[in-house]
Amino acid sequence: MVFLIRAKNGWTKELWDMVKGHTTQGQLYIPQEALAVDVDLPSTGLLMKMNVDGPFGSAVRVKWERHNGVVIVVGGSGVSYGLAILEYLCGVVAKKGKDGGEDGVKLGRVRFVWLVRDFGE
């Protein structure tokens, strides 16, 4: 997976500083992390181990409509949570198109990715 992360404050700034430090030394991976035998190193960026966890918060508290675009990634039965968000966002986009836009609504594109184990599913 490739992550594009905007470095601001806190852990994103610390992550940026770490990646910058390794790449300025010409490293393509973190030496303390064991590489798999058949791994292809990237031509740019830094190969590193990451843990992906979530979801955090709730759909209600997030101001989805303030973003230009939203990507919803769900896996397996987690689709039920993602579909609730998708339905809400489709309503926001439809209302924006119908009414000519609301104050603070920037949302124009919603992408939905549902990861399943087998193609037949």
Structural commentary:
The chain is of the alpha+beta class and 121 residues long. It folds into 2 domains: 1-53, no CATH class; 64-115, no CATH class. It has 2 helices and 2 strands, in the order αβαβ. It has helices at residues 11-24, 79-99, and strands at 69-75, 109-115. Strands 1-2 form a two-stranded parallel ribbon. Helix 2 (79-99) links the parallel strand 1 and strand 2 (109-115). The chain starts with 10 loop residues before the first helix and ends in a 6-residue tail after the last strand. The mean pLDDT is 81.
Strand content: 5-15%
Q: Which stretches are low in confidence, meaning pLDDT under 50 for 5 or more residues running?
A: none
**Count of individual domains:** 2
| Count of individual beta strands | 2
Q: Structural class, please?
A: alpha+beta
- Summed over residues and divided by their number, the pLDDT gives a mean of 81
How far apart are the first and last residues' alpha carbons, in Å?
22 Å
Radius of gyration: 19 Å
Considering DSSP H and I runs of 4 or more, what fraction of the residues is helical?
25-40%
- The total of helices stands at 2
User: How do the helices and strands follow one another from N- to C-terminus?
Assistant: HEHE
Shape: extended
Taking the sheet with the most strands, its summary is: 2 strands, parallel
Short description:
The protein is α+β, with helices and mostly antiparallel strands and 121 residues long. The chain contains two helices and two strands; from the N terminus they run H-E-H-E.
